[in-house]
Amino acid sequence: VMDDRAQRELRGWFTKHAANPRTEIEARIRNVTQIGFEAVMAHLKSNQLWTNSPEERETLDCIHVSGVRETIDSDNRHTFMRKNKIKDVIVQVSPDHPVRFAVAEEMPGSADESPVSQWRFKQRITFVHKGMFSFELTRVRAGTSEQAARSAPISHEIEIEFCGQSIKPMPNAQYLADSLVMKVRDVVSRLCKAADAPQQPAKRPRVAGSALSEGQQVLVSKGAAVALESAGHAVGAPFDGEMPAELAERVPWVLSHVEKDDAGSEHAYIMSLPCAIHTRSYPLFFFYGSVPVAAVVAKSQSSASS
């Protein structure tokens, strides 16, 4: 379950570090099986709306005892980097998949002569979403010697990393935290479905005093406008900050979380799924905003009552 501490930490990290090109904010999903990895890969490859052109890249990482990471690419170019961990938090998103959220500073370094403690042969493909978050899927062979690494079994890693340090204007920290969390939930859900375990997927946390769950698909009730915030895209809040009710009710949404304002009123923060308005199509999470909690209903509930 994604706890409040993780949300608070992410908001703080994005507030302080989002615009720093040397700082990385990432989520690493643990216990990734081959079948889950392939399922997530197939899903990502089916999407044609990536900012980049996803291509596989092979590298060798040599981890020196000094802590310096030496990366050798397919053209035999060597780069040296030292990662200084700032903070991390581990969240049990499903029974089988803890997720490590972390913020760290990466500093370029010079050639390092200290011994190598670990070799990591990597095949990685990266999918960049809106120039803001990258999905990094990596097949790894690792060992304490080069020979051991070459003969090691393949392990599978999935990371989601913030890569939008140069975006202007920078989206607000709450949006960035929510967006990262929603992407993590989606990947973990696909891993769980691929595993086909009877206890999966994990139950989503319920919103207190409501039948709604965080991460649940919802609809906005008729007559309710959505107070929009900037979600990046190098523009301010769409529709001058308010999506008219007649449009809001036609957009598919997903519930991020619920917050109380200073007056004690509860507001549901929602993010849009891929949708079309008039002749224009909008990608995942393009619209982000809030409405009174009473103005959102679960999609299944709405369908049943219509």
From TrEMBL:
Top-level taxon in the UniProt lineage: Eukaryota
EC number(s) reported in the record: 3.6.1.74
The keyword Magnesium belongs to this UniProt entry's keyword annotation: no
Catalytic activity: a 5'-end triphospho-ribonucleoside in mRNA + H2O = a 5'-end diphospho-ribonucleoside in mRNA + phosphate + H(+)
Molecular function in Gene Ontology: mRNA 5'-triphosphate monophosphatase activity; polynucleotide 5'-phosphatase activity
Pfam family, one: mRNA_triPase
Keywords: Hydrolase, mRNA processing
GO BP, one annotated term: mRNA processing
Family annotation (Gene3D superfamilies): mRNA triphosphatase Cet1-like
Domain annotation mRNA triphosphatase Cet1-like: ranges: 73-162
Protein name in the entry: mRNA 5'-phosphatase
